[in-house]
Write a structure and sequence with these properties.
Length: 77
Amino acid sequence: MVYMTQQRGAFFFQMRVPRKHRAEFGELIRVQINTFDREVARILSMNLAAQWLARFSGLPLPAVASAPQSTTLRARL
């Protein structure tokens, strides 16, 4: 499934909420991903999808590293 959209150059995570959870979360979850890099946005959107799907299924949420604050990933030289 695709959980990433793009509008005016910015990427967004977007997911429809299952019917039984809509009273709590609304019909749609939409979060701006603070990057203009398509690959970084894809990875971050899949991370968000995993977290939301775990929450909807009632599974405990695993501890995950926070998303990078910079819009650019740099390799160490």
